[in-house]
Amino acid sequence: MIQDLADIILLSLQVSGIALLLSTMIGVPLGIWMGLNRFKLRRLLTAVLYTGMGFPPVVIGLFVYILLSRNGMLGSLNLDIVPELFTPGAMIVAQTIIAFPLVAGFTMAAVIGVDPQMRSQVLSLGATKTQAAYAVMREARVGVIAAVVAGFGSIISEVGAVMLVGGNIEGRTRVMTTAIVLETRKGNFDLALSLGIILLGITFLTNLAILRLQGRAVEQ
Amino acid sequence: MTNPIYKIRELVKEYDGRRVLDIPDLEIYPGEIFALVGPSGAGKSTLLRLLNFLELPTSGEITFLTHKYQPDMDVPLEIKRRVTTVFQRPILLNQTVSENVVYGLRVRGKKESNGLCKSVLKQVGLAHLAHQRARTLSGGEAQRVALARAMIIQPDVLLLDEPTANLDPYNITLIEEIAKNTNQINQTTLVLVTHNIFQARRLANRIALMLDGKIIEVTDTEHFFKAPDDPRTAAFVRGDMVY
User: Fold this and answer.
1) What is the ipTM, given to two decimal places?
2) Hey, what CATH topology would domain A2-219 get?
């Protein structure tokens, strides 16, 4: 029982952790790029990003399900890098798609909030474009950390997408949120509640750690 | 005669089809203090951005030393790094004063010599604030840090975009002194944009009046004030509205 619980917690952290890492790797550079550059389709792209920020996770789960199913656009390719449905890999794909618009959108807003003259001034001091982008990101770091926190919050507590693409298979794809749903349906409220408290605790501790990092940045 | 450090020919800059700069011919010489004066919106700051290669012209060319630049040309980093600007409103990094000062060295991959940083901070009268966070500084102190971070990289050309606007007389005097010393000791070419014609008179060897994106007159400082060729220059010196 305790082993099962530990496996569920570990898988939740693994799936959401990898998804957060991927969405940060995609979202932060994208947000910085969109915040720094003025281009023709910027407004349209921003609208798409903002739509993604408010997209219901269950709908994203549905899209990923269709894409990864055997007849789907990606599933039919039979490629090693495309995860199969009802695996942690499929859950990571869904959670990455849920989190990255939030990470990118909030990062973009943080970068736009930095004085636009900052970039000109560091470029004038001899910075390369990459060094200038890094300088702007450093100035926007409080907002970038908030973006990562928002991304984490959106996936650790998410249930619809992981249920659809993961299938809540015991020992394989069962995570805390799907276990809570299952145990509640079975009437095991004590276990469901315990899982809920553990989930809350993990979220709280993770956010506390990230906020300490943010606090240090604010103090600076 | 000395070869110019900047040679500008048929320079045009447009934003969304609107012409903001139109300079057929202008030369700036090494080691001089060249002032650009004129009302707001005359194109002075735009010209500085072009001289700093932060933007490229819409048409025409800028020759910096022997390197000629035209629209859509990539200016090499080593050329860009020979010029820097002190802007009207200094935006300092959210770090300490000394970290701000050595930023230009750090991006060049040069060793951050503590002695050099101290010496530059001493020149701008801020050695005692080296470890203070930059965001706690007053406007005048922040501008002096901006000047120090420009001086430490020892540029060939230092562009000053209204560096003393909104500052108190003490800081104005101090910044003018530092600028003059930088020019005299290091032979750094200074291009100064200012609304204050008295400041231009105090510092510059030559002055250009800009109106509506065009250079109206370029001449020696004395000639500019005492016997300008163009009636608009005379009116500007008198303090009349010229647009």
Assistant:
1) 0.91
2) MetI-like fold (1.10.3720)
